[in-house]
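Work through this protein:
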Amino acid sequence: LYVFSGFVGLLKVSGGIKGFARWIGRITETKKGTLLALWATEIVTFLDCAYRVVATGMIFRPLADKRGISRERLAFMLNNSASPVVALVPIATTFVGFMVGTVATGLNVAGLDSSPYITFLKSIPFNFFSITSILVAISSVLFNFNFRKMRELEGEEKGKKRKITNHVRHRPAVDMEMADMDGMTMGMDSNTRNEKGREGHIYNLVIPILILLPLSLYMMWWTGRDEGISFSSAIINAESSRAMFLALVITTAIASLIYLFQGFSLQELTDNFFKQANKIIHTIAILAVAWPIADVTKDLGLPKLITTTLGENLPGVYVHLIIFVVTSLVSYFIGSSWGTFALLMPIAIPLAAITGASVLMAIGAVFAGGTFGDVTSPLSGMTVMAAGAAEAEHMEYVEAQMPYNLTAFALAAVLFLAIPLLI
């Protein structure tokens, strides 16, 4: 996690996103085309939610103004194309290590002997909120599926320019780190700007990603290989955390060499690597505490407690819906998807195992509920960051995005209820 965050810092300072912005501006001429292009940038910005929002906001804010797209819609598109997408990607993202870690914690508490990474892979199709929220957001572009508040805000954009305000000064005090990220988005942090006269090139973004993805797969095969076994079997047996760490270290070294040859100083690259990497220390602390919690809760008899209180009385078909609703409420009120994952996964997996519900769907329900809070809660760091990146009024954006995310929530809830009944 630490190396990955530092790697994102190198991508930021390299200026690759600046070159990508120039290219996007040449190929999009309509409102719908600009919004679809925003989603298309996923292929080079999916590595990290904060990077996705900050970098894409930097590209599309001037294009949005030019095409008559409201700042609130831009914030909505930035946020709902970040964590919902990243949570579904099984490799080379900052989410993977943490999500696999929480799954390992839950499996340990439940006493289940399964590969955490493979279990995580199998649970991805059951992250229904991520899927429905993406579909709802894209439908709002393709089919003009929009609610009244967003339509009103879009009408404000026609024929006049909105006043841009500095939102960092008025940011809620729930996450000061997000305010720092907002500052970077608005060009107030020199680490996100190229030196005078230095042009950003798109290959500074694309080449490291094209190296990282296949190298991660290769390293997974390498750590799981054994004589006579197939590639898929090697992936199943892989030491996923070790493989991704090795791939990241190698890719970071290669990217640094590329940037050094372009004239970036070693000090500049080092400063940006550690500045960005240090931002994830609090997340690493959560994970470090979550691991021993698994042993403690198991020793204290949490599975037995769940068995005696809920195991015999709660029908398994309703467990996934209950987990999803409870997780969504927790993540909404605390404003943290990762904190919610760490809190509820050790409870959700034993509950599913004891009641005969699908463990994979229970895992998907925790990830789905956490993602709901991440993109919906006004306290969420990602919601604050998306508003800052788009330079939108924070509460105007929260009000505008709420009907879309509640629609996605309702669709996901129906799936969590209907699929267990059908199967």
Summary: Residues 62 and 364 are 37 Å apart (CA to CA). The radius of gyration is 22 Å. Residues 157-197 have pLDDT under 50 and may be disordered.
